[in-house]
Design a protein that fits this description.
2-enoyl-CoA Hydratase, Chain A, domain 1
Length: about 220
């Protein structure tokens, strides 16, 4: 239910359970965690996508009722993706819902098809969001819009998600992976360690101490 395709430094991870809207089981989360761990020393870019019309509906319903909805596996996965030293791209082939938000928010870039929808119904379902999700969501869309998604249960369509900054670009379904690979091309062609070196600047404290000397 998880496919991994490796093309040199480009790793493409595909959620492949379209008959269940790519709902995630504990075993799938554990497999994704293992892939993220393996990618850390090897991949220069990682694309996360899915098959069918839904990127992921979040937790598998039966397993959610048995406790998966509050499992620490979700936060473990998003933390590992966020820490990856390579360029990470969520190529959202369809709707993003619930716990699946964490892995997409943890990526560096997000593309989506125009038909995608976005909702995170933790208030309605009586769950808490993953601990890191409100902060990452706020950094992208601002506090009021983050609260609209998490507390007011708002569902937004892809064009609105683009306007909010939740996604960075829209792409037609047939062009989604092509555009994601194009964004990853420079990272994949870079010398080993260069992607990680640039990425570290984004987590460094602001100010003169973190600035590099001017070039030229």
């Amino acid at each position: 239910m998880i496919r991994l395709d490796r093309d040199g430094g480009l790793w493409t991870v595909t959620l492949d359970r379209p008959d269940k809207a790519n709902a995630l089981t504990a075993a799938m989360l554990q497999e994704l965690i293992a892939i993220a761990e393996a990618a850390a020393p090897e991949a220069r870019a990682l694309i996360l996508t899915g098959t069918g019309r839904v990127f992921s509906a979040g937790a598998d319903l039966a397993e959610a009722r048995a406790g998966l909805a509050t499992s620490p596996l979700w936060e473990d996965l998003s933390a590992r993706i966020a820490r990856l030293p390579c360029l990470t791209i969520a190529a959202l082939n369809g709707t993003l819902a619930g716990g699946a938000f964490g892995m997409a928010l943890a990526c560096d870039l997000r593309l989506a098809v125009p038909e995608a929808g976005f909702f995170y119904p933790v208030m309605k379902l009586g769950f808490l969001p993953q601990p890191s999700d409100p902060g990452r969501l706020t950094a992208l869309v601002g506090p009021a819009r983050a609260k609209a998604l998490l507390m007011a249960g708002q569902r937004i369509a892809a064009p609105e998600a683009l306007a909010w900054g939740l996604v960075d670009r829209l792409a037609d379904p047939e062009a989604l992976l092509t555009e994601a690979r194009a964004l990853a091309a420079d990272a994949c062609a870079a010398p080993p360690g260069h992607v990680a070196a640039i990425k570290r600047f984004f987590s460094a404290p602001a100010g003169p101490a973190s600035e590099s000397p001017p070039s030229g």
